[in-house]
Structure formats: structure tokens, C-alpha cells
Design brief:
The protein contains 13 helices and no strands. By secondary structure, the chain is mainly α. It has one domain. Helix 3 packs across helix 8. The longest helix is centred in the middle third of the chain and has 35 residues. The chain is globular, with a radius of gyration of 21 Å. The chain starts with a helix and ends with a helix.
Length: 265
């Protein structure tokens, strides 16, 4: 009797048929993510672009003569404005790249439980982008220290928001993008949608000056990330900002899962 037949007679499935469960799915997603050159390039670009933008902002602030005693995380909002889209690209390609190449069929054959596959992708992507975000935040603080020297204030809150807060924002934004990627199945579509939500809508809101639109935009992902990174209390604190960011990520992932479960690969 073969091993598979013996396992079947005992009412169990061989390990290969189970696909290693959730740990096996996570290991597979980890290998796929870091096996792509684009992952390394985009995350490295995110950290370097953050540091470069922080350097430009610090030099501009120093030239203005209005430096005072800046907090360690003074420049994080400005320095991540553009570099965050490198993280968005990684998040989008995590799922849309598989649809484009047809690799999603192999993924779902290996891990037929689609919920398990999505949890594995989200876990791996979340860890990777959180780490990249923390590195980007630390780079910003390092640049701030290099430019302003002893004038910088290194209180615990500003350092934590500047490092862990940036990591949390990047992770939340990446999971939001992952959900949109599943929903739209298009790299361009997911990235353009995130650009619209994160960049275009706040700019439009500022130009129009409508109170209702401003209130709505203040509770969207980009604005929710600001108190998380800066520790600001206006229009709300970092606790509510974290909940809003997590809520948007969960909403996008749920919608993406609904589409994933109803469509073929």
C-alpha cells in the first residue's frame, strides 16, 4: 500500500497534499516576494528616496533660518510623500504580477484555500513593508540629526512615531493596496487608485475648500497616517489614525477576498 493510500485509510491526508498549512503558505509567499528583483529595488528605493527627500527638506528648512529646535520626526511627512509609492508598487505587484503572468493558477493549486493564501500574502507583505518603513523613518531621523546636530529634540514619542509610526503607515498602505490589487487585478489600476486616494484627493480638497469634502478626506488612509507618523492631535490622535488606517486596509482586503473567491484565477 502506498503512503498516500495508507494516509487515506487512516482518515488523514499526506503532508504534501495539505501544502504545509498556513506556515507552508507563508514560507512560499516569503520566497516568492524576495525572489523578485523588483521587491529589493522598490524597497531600497523607498528608503533611499525617503532619506534624499529628508535631506532636501532639512537643507531648505535650515536655509530659511526658522529651524528652532526640531523634533526628531519633523520631516517624516514630507520625506515619505513620494517614496511611499515605491512600497505601493511592491504591494500591487505581489498579487497583480501573478495574474499578469498566470502564476496565480499555480499559487491557488498549491494553496487551494484562498483565505489561507490571502492571509499568507498579507502577513509576508506586512512584515516586509513594516521593516522597510521603519528603515525609512530611521533614515529620516539620521538625516535630521546630521543637518541640525544638537538642536534636534530626541524625546521618546517623536522617535517612536518617526520610526515605528512610519513602519505602521507603510504596512497599512501596502495592505490597502494589496486588497485593491485583488479587487482590480491590474497593476496600473491599483497604483492609480492609491495615488488618487493618497495624493490627488487631499490636493483637490485643499483647492476646493469644501468642509464636507475636507472632513471625508481627513478620515482617508493618507491623512490617517499623519498622526501615526508625527504624533499630532489634529484632527485626531495617532490611536484613531491607526484604527482608521487598519479599517481601510481590512475593507480593501475583504472586498478583494470576495472577488478572489468568486472568480477563477
Amino acid at each position: 500500500m502506498t503512503m498516500a493510500a495508507t494516509a487515506q485509510a487512516r482518515g488523514t491526508a499526506p503532508q504534501q497534499a495539505r501544502g504545509g498549512g498556513l506556515p507552508g503558505a507563508v514560507a512560499a509567499e516569503w520566497t516568492k516576494l524576495w525572489g523578485l528583483r523588483s521587491t529589493w529595488l522598490c524597497l531600497a528605493a523607498a528608503v533611499l528616496a525617503t532619506a534624499g527627500t529628508a535631506a532636501l527638506g532639512a537643507l531648505a528648512l535650515q536655509a530659511s533660518g526658522n529651524v528652532g529646535t526640531p523634533a526628531a520626526n519633523t520631516l517624516v511627512t514630507a520625506s515619505t510623500l513620494l517614496s511611499q509609492f515605491a512600497v505601493v508598487a511592491v504591494a500591487s505587484l505581489t498579487v497583480t504580477g501573478e495574474y499578469a503572468t498566470g502564476a496565480m493558477r499555480t499559487t491557488l493549486t498549491t494553496v487551494p484555500r484562498r483565505g489561507r493564501m490571502l492571509i499568507a500574502k498579507a502577513a509576508v507583505l506586512g512584515v516586509a513593508t513594516f521593516a522597510a518603513g521603519c528603515a525609512a523613518g530611521a533614515a529620516t531621523i539620521a538625516v535630521t540629526a546630521a543637518v541640525f546636530g544638537d538642536a534636534v529634540v530626541y524625546d521618546t514619542a517623536s522617535v517612536l512615531h518617526g520610526i515605528v509610526g512610519v513602519g505602521g503607515y507603510m504596512m497599512g498602505l501596502s495592505l490597502f493596496t494589496l486588497g485593491l490589487g485583488l479587487l482590480l487585478r491590474s497593476t496600473a489600476g491599483a497604483i492609480i487608485t492609491v495615488v488618487g486616494v493618497v495624493l490627488a484627493l487631499p490636493m483637490i480638497s485643499q483647492m476646493i475648500g469644501n468642509d464636507t469634502l475636507t472632513e471625508v478626506v481627513d478620515h482617508m488612509p493618507a491623512m490617517a497616517g499623519i498622526p501615526l507618523m508625527t504624533g499630532a492631535d489634529d484632527p485626531y490622535g495617532w490611536g484613531l489614525g491607526s484604527l482608521l488606517l487598519a479599517g481601510w486596509a481590512v475593507l480593501a482586503l475583504v472586498l478583494g477576498f470576495v472577488v478572489l473567491s468568486r472568480r477563477d484565477a
